[in-house]
Amino acid sequence: MKSAPDLNSSYLGLALSSPLVASAGPMTRGVKTLVELEEAGVGAVVLPSLFEEDVDRDISALHAVLEQGTQAFVEAQTYLPELPAFEVGAERSLRLVEEAKSALAIPVIASVNGNTTGGWTRYATQLVDAGADALELNVYIVAADPSGAPGDVRSRYVDLVGAVRESVQVPLAVKIGPYFDSTAQMAVALDDAGADGLVFFNRFYQPDIDTETLEVAPTLDLSTESDLRLPLRWIAILYGRIGCSLAASGVSTPVRVW
User: Any idea what the CATH number is for the domain that residue 109 is in?
Assistant: First the structure.
């Protein structure tokens, strides 16, 4: 009788019982499914990203509602009742980290996407304080400015990783897109900046135009097996040539293989 294969692995310096990691998505946004994923054999989980822009939007919307009419009459300063605390913005993500850490034995990786350097470092620190074993920086920078210098985007990535690296001590994975003048050189630069792992690749949204209404139509297609060729190609090229972990993302199920 054949013995079960040894799937013990290492990612970002974390010891894993399996090289499969559940990526950020609907399957990782609730404790119940997180426990089911652990029981199914994943070695770690990545929680859905905390987006700085979502936090700012939620807080602005809440303040607009609570302050509506308060400048219309003098009495309006006191007639509004005291309301219970609201869970908006970062609180939901931080609570999920705490609950996941309490329920799981496998590593919990928090994901963050910021708009500003202060936002990246602030929310990265909060997620680590909530108990995250590692962070995944969900970087979504599209080089769409034709007037920018060739190295601008690379500098933004490197500066971002360096800033977060100075703010937290846990392992850092950086999820990047495939559109660089030199993916290999970018990988080396991020490794040198303090990344403990690189995730290939982030999928940029590609909206369509509805020709009937002439409006932008959000489109999100699930990945296919053929989409895995590009990340595997770059992992093969970089394997053994840089020091950080290499992860492949893009499988149409909520798992990551590397």
Answer: 3.20.20.70
Inside any domain, residue 79 = no
Q: 3-state DSSP call for residue 217?
A: strand
In a domain, 68, yes or no: no
Query: Which domain covers residue 186, as residue numbers?
Result: 9-52+90-253
Residues with Cβ within 8 Å of 236's Cβ and at least 6 positions away in sequence, in order, are none
111 DSSP assignment: E
* Secondary structure class of 53 (helix, strand, coil): helix
Q: pTM of the predicted model, to two decimals? A: 0.84
**Residue 85 domain flag:** no
User: Which tens digits make up the pLDDT trace of 141-161?
Assistant: 877 788 878 788 889 999 999
Which residues, listed in sequence order, are joined to residue 208 by a DSSP beta bridge? 217
Task: Report the amino acid identity of residue 74.
Answer: V
Contact of 170 with 132, CB cutoff 8 Å: yes
The torsion of the CA quartet 102, 103, 106, 110, rounded to 10 degrees, works out to: -70
- Total domains in the chain come to 1
Taking only the tens place, the pLDDT of each residue in 34-49 is 999 999 999 999 999 9
